[in-house]
Amino acid sequence: xxxxxxxxxxxxxxxxxxxxxxxxxxxxxxxxxxxxxxxxxxxxxxxxxxxxxxxxxxxxxxxxxxxxxxxxxxxxxxxxxxxxxxxxxxxxxxxxxxxxxxxxxxxxxxxxxxxxxxxxxxxxxxxxxxxxxxxxxxxxxxxxxxxxxxxxxxxxxxxxxxxxxxxxxxxxxxxxxxxxxxxxxxxxxxxxxxxxxxxxxxxxxxxxxxxxxxxxxxxxxxxxxxxxxxxxxxxxxxxxxxxxxxxxxxxxxxx
Length: 255
Fold this sequence. Notes:
- This protein is an alpha/beta fold.
- The protein contains nine helices and eight strands.
């Protein structure tokens, strides 16, 4: 008998931008949507069946989030929360690296038992990964916030690729959403994202998140990095580096 239960997607970083736009689209497609963000007021305006608060600068909140989702089937986990910032978190890590890599890695590990065979893990990365350093070790300092950002986005790509090898019953992808007009970045960067012409809308930026969530599995390349719905890096690239990052991240997080 066909299972008529709506599929469930969890979207982090859903208070605004592409996360909020993707949530709206998935609700309209009949999915059960859980949105996660750190701003209660903005999150309250995002369509969804459940709204959960979590600030990824605090790993205890990531663990609490996982406990709040315990027992729920998750068909798509969209690790979309991302930021470029300065400073160190309460956990002692570079803030950008923790928000963009360490926290989603931890969340995914904690929720892994709730991802059935065929479920999907999506990691919002960026072409800024090309300017990033080797992400191992993931707990070191960085010369600038933007180097940390590029490195964290490379880590997203490696995480998706290594997930596809370690968890072959799941589908795992990373993608570049384009340069989107959002509330993203440092104060100066926010001016750029607000005033620059020609930037993608949040709806356009959310296109690949929705597409990777819903496209038939046989049409996708497991572990790949996508840009404009095209594979630009396969899971087989940088395989040794991705494996090193996984092990180092698990060690840092004491998993």
